[in-house]
């Protein structure tokens, strides 16, 4: 169906048994298609539209620049039915993303993909990129972070000072007590839906090995961190000891102080769409693959601001 003069949107079912549900967004103007497409998917149990419909807005922004995208629900989440019976969520997510790439190959004729992952979707995106060489770039928002002692203390102090004045404080305090002291059944995660919690050390080992493999394969990577989760950033704090790793210089890293984790504010959405839209479009429109492309210049405050762009209304 026609969404505007700039884009065409088509609901699709795909994957084995047509289990997966998504929305294909393509530029309406007749021009050579971009050689790569963008895939967007769930942030935790959120619907494929993303928090505050940010995936919809990103899809429209990309289409206005000539880039096609598919936003969809992973198997067993949102409108999608369970795709398979793999024992863990991570494997099922990889299978869903591979089915989405297969669908885009058939309908768009593209064979290279940029994955945009948020929060828990970061691990899904990284796992898929390691598994499938069709993935050439990753845009990752509020994923793995390894702040060291000074950063953790500063975050804890700022939150402790701000928490009592926040209107949500009483409710959150009560839920924390139930979860940590009362051990109530209601506070336990749904079995089989969320992955088992790993220690920080286990996460670090997995992150290091995976990033190194992606670096060796020349996969371009954008790492974005919100101001609400991480409070402050000096010298790539969220990478911790990994800021000295061999793969670190190749990363497009950005701390977005004005953006919160669920992109609630109008300013935060604009900054997010500029940062991700610029970066993803550059990778999708490039004739080559890998880490080539124009880097966004950073401001003194640590947040890069691109020139405003026009996208279709959500």
Q: So, CATH architecture?
A: 3-Layer(aba) Sandwich
For the biggest β-sheet, the strand order reads 1-2-4-3-5-6-7-8
Tell me the major beta sheet: 8 strands, mixed
Secondary structure: number of strands: 8
CATH topology title: Rossmann fold
Task: Give the full name of the CATH homologous superfamily.
Answer: Alpha/Beta hydrolase fold, catalytic domain
Q: Please work out how many helical segments DSSP would assign.
A: 8
The helix/strand class is: alpha/beta
Describe this structure in words.
The protein is α/β, with parallel strands linked by helices. The protein has a single domain, classed as Rossmann fold. The chain is 35% helix and 16% strand. It contains 8 helices and 8 strands. It has helices at 54-64, 89-108, 121-131, 149-162, 169-182, 200-216, 227-230, 266-285, and strands spanning 7-14, 20-27, 36-40, 69-72, 112-118, 135-141, 220-226, 252-256. It has an 8-stranded mixed β-sheet, with helices on both faces. Residues 190-195 and 292-314 have low confidence and may be disordered.
Tags for this entry?
single chain, 314 residues, alpha/beta, Rossmann fold, eight-stranded mixed beta sheet, 8 helices, 35% helix, globular
Layout of strands and helices, then pairs:
Blueprint: E1 7-14, E2 20-27, E3 36-40, H1 54-64, E4 69-72, H2 89-108, E5 112-118, H3 121-131, E6 135-141, H4 149-162, H5 169-182, H6 200-216, E7 220-226, H7 227-230, E8 252-256, H8 266-285
Parallel strand pairs: 3-4, 3-5, 5-6, 6-7, 7-8
Antiparallel strand pairs: 1-2, 2-4
